[in-house]
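Appendix B.2, paired examples.
Example (i):
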Amino acid sequence: MIRTAFKMFLKPGFEAEYEKRHAAIWPQLKTLLKDSGVYDYSIFWDKETNILFAVQKVNGDQSSQDLGSTEIVQKWWAYMADIMETNPDNSPVSIPLPELFYME
């Protein structure tokens, strides 16, 4: 098991929409994440900066950020592109964060 963390950027004024869309996450996407070993996945919002902080546990060697070649993830990216900062391929701008401390 590994833990990964990264940050993304929410466009101002879209926190309720972001939360709404994730509350209704597509079952196919959730299945893909679970089948890929992603679990215990949380995303937090810093309302002062609109930074989204994500942390997840992964069984295996792929995090959610490594699934971009799948059709369902590409569709999710397109669905979320209007409310997040994105790259030209609609993937969210995502910055990996190294773990400096962990207490079990």
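Example (ii):
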Amino acid sequence: MVSAVPVFYDDVEWYIAIVVWIFCLVLGAAAFLHCVVQRADAFPAIGTMSKTIWLAMIIGGEFFTAISPSIGLGFLGIFPLIAAGIFAVYLLDIRPTLRDAVDGHGSW
């Protein structure tokens, strides 16, 4: 019986998963580096969780993203996707608000 799916489909899916996994790792590194250099008193000023909590979530997400292939969850298991969500929230929501608070261009 001939399969309708080409043989190279599995290879393409694997390469895409690796690219997305590496993107998640880079996104986490960017979020970590930005969070580390921010002032700790700016986080409560914008009404979000403390710097320590954000760092813990980002480091935990980065750790579970990095080890997910080695523990048998594959490159796009549940941990890298949850971590990418944490990284995206930090970089797309918290980071601009912190920038506005520190530069003095915010609404406060």
